[in-house]
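@channel sequence for tomorrow's demo:
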Amino acid sequence: MKKTFLIIAAALMMCLPTFAQQQKVDVEALQKKIEKSDADIANEKKATKASTWVKRAEAMMAAETAYTSQIYDNMEANMVQLMLGKPKGVEDAVIENIPYAKMRYDAFNLYISGDQKVKGWEVVKPVYEGAIDKAIEAYGKAYELDAKMLKKTKAGLQIVCNNLGKSASNSYFLRDFSAAANYFEKAYEVSLMPAAEMAIDTLSIFNAGFTSYFSGEYERSVKNLLIAESYGYYQDGDLYNVLYNSFRSLYGEDKAKLAEAEEFLFRGLELFPGNANVITCLTDLYLALGKNPEAVVPKVEEAIAKEPSNAMLWYGLGAINKELKKYDEAMSAFNKVVELNPGNALAYYYIGTLYVLKGDELNEQLNNNWGSETYKEDKKKVEALYAQSIAPFEKAHELMPNEIAFVEYLKVVTFRLRNESADIQAKFEKYNELFKQMNAK
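structure tokens (generated this afternoon):
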């Protein structure tokens, strides 16, 4: 990491005044409130009062949010120091290859990006371990004792859910995916509580499945995603992609168990026939089971016959034919996509990719027939296929200028053909430089 990054952070520490509005957490006072609450719920008479449990929940949430209640994503670092004072120190930190300045306080750390904004935090000395679980339990108990407390329990549990979402997002930033899944699961569970009186949080249970997949907890991921599916939360069909990958990771080459994935993938295909990920998963499953993946094609074609103007159905047909290496059929389908939806950048990208794949295929044959009478003629056919990929790749880049994959393909193809013409040489120089710039960000 560059030293200048820390120098800037250190300079901020030194130049900021210490104002009277600095927020100091009175840990002792918070802990005394919890001790009093412990005594109250141990008291046979007080424990029967809903108000006792509401006060307990509030005390627990005060402890839970003591250090982070006023911290938020993209908060200016200088504002943090105005409120909290100077950190004990600043050190280098790298998360997902991105450098941060880690500002250390007594009980927590903040991660500051290069533009001096808060991107994440971690509490290293909580006021009370597991406070948020105790708060959830207390609100539930209060409602159980007196349903008339709904207004207070509902408001309190909404605050709990907001904090769970904030903590989940922060854990995701820290790449602690298991912790993120814990928070998402709790948010979903709170939404089921009568004391919360809120809509079922299907997004959180989906995110619990998503993050537990990344943490390698595949059984947990499958369980959560199937719950999300039961509520009709599909994330435009992407649920089935994550569900299948969790299932595949969980059962490996166990064909008997893997075969069970066919049922939910066909549910996904029926609901989202144009989702290329669902089609790719089905193709992978069939190959793993030793079955012919072409069995999926008639189902997509049947859907197209009913909705011939549905660009996503054609997109799905193109995706599966690409997986089957039926490049001409795939090309025809993707061309239909851009005819119906000229703004579909990925369709142009796949058209370009198919020209490259066809070129690679022909080039491999050419290398196996080195010195044949038709070698020079066949070599020109290979180069022509690569050249045909440039226009669709450029169109994809025009539609999605920030997508680095499009630029990388343009760089590779124009490099290969750079000696063909001055125009292609110029394109290579342009896309090579652009790729370097985008890769450096």
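heads up for whoever presents: The two ends are 14 Å apart (CA to CA).
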